[in-house]
Please model this.
Amino acid sequence: MFTITGIGTLVTNDLTLERGNLGIIRNAALVVGDDGKINWTGEAVNLAVDLAADAIDVGGRTIIPGFVDSHTHLVFGGDRSDEFEARMSGTTYTAGGIRTTMTATRAATDNALVANARRLADEALRSGTTTLEVKSGYGLSVRDEARSLRAATTVSNETTFLGAHVVPPDTDTDKYVDLVCGEMLTQCAPHAKWIDVFCDRGAFDVDQARTILTAGARAGLGLRIHANQLQHGGGVQLGVELGAASCDHCSHLNDADISALAGTNGRTVATLLPTAELCTRSAFPDARRLIDAGVTVALASDCNPGSSYTTSMPLAISLAVLNMKMTCDEAVWAATAGGGAALRRTDIGTLQAGSQADFILLNAPSHVYLAYRPGVNLVDAVVRRGTCVVGALL
Ligand code: NIG
Ligand code: FE
Model:
């Protein structure tokens, strides 16, 4: 057990408050139990005297919950820097680039896939991400999707089967949908908690996505969907209809989509991925419209070699505030408790008695600095399950 005092700003995301309320405690203390959970949080003046005795004093710095990055594609081979360079010279991003990574992923050994995922998970941890969702989706065959998911399980418990990322080359679409719902699902479901479909131009249409998600639900997987990224379509409505935990991207929404999301009362989260817009030079989604309508919003990195090759949640927060009309509080909530909501978890992204002791010590007087100082590494330490795994608390 250990105690931290001198916390200038403690973000708790107290679950008894409204979603989006950071539950800030100033001049705070927190107690971490030997079970790796938060034991107590409150104003330092209310800390039990015996606990205060050998507390670590962090000198007025800020503590926030570890980032919950609820959307990543960390299992892949190769890179796509040539495609990126071409895009920056004027070509447009399309779903087709996924097939380039498919070829490199199929050629990579299991060890290479695990090492690459581990490298990126460690990189994410250094910028404060203590929970990552990790998708397959670059294997696109029974064997390569199953081994991608096995690689994903080495870095996360929140793994997602994304066999329906695109149809592999020279393959009949209907036959591929049958394969995804049949043998591929059978081999992949034991290694996955979730199923996802890329429902968009150049990938799968709404009917195909419905078939695949329904099969996944029957196999016991929770639902997520890549929806409305490249153009307006029925993906978000489908996600809501099927009770998905999250509709991700949401870059092209009409009023009906927003009302549908709002009507779920937070059961279906809109996960926004601003670094994907940044790296594809696309228009940012209007988070204000969503939040004002009552939609629960999460922020995630979408880390993948094509559209968003970054693990940085602080960058996502900066972009959300500077380009998507989110307040600093909303963006920090969305990157922590919002990610938890998108994974249907309340034990992460919060710092209350009973929460997993996952938190970040920021070299800043408040969480506002995450947006106010874009591109600057403010992370002094990261604690995961009660153990300091990056930097030092002193
Ligand atoms: O979320 N949109 C689909 N999947 C990824 C991109 C995949 C890729 O280009 O490799 C995304 O942006
Ligand atoms: Fe994605």
About this structure: The mean pLDDT is 98. The chain is about 35% helix and 20% strand. The first strand starts at residue 2 and ends at 11.
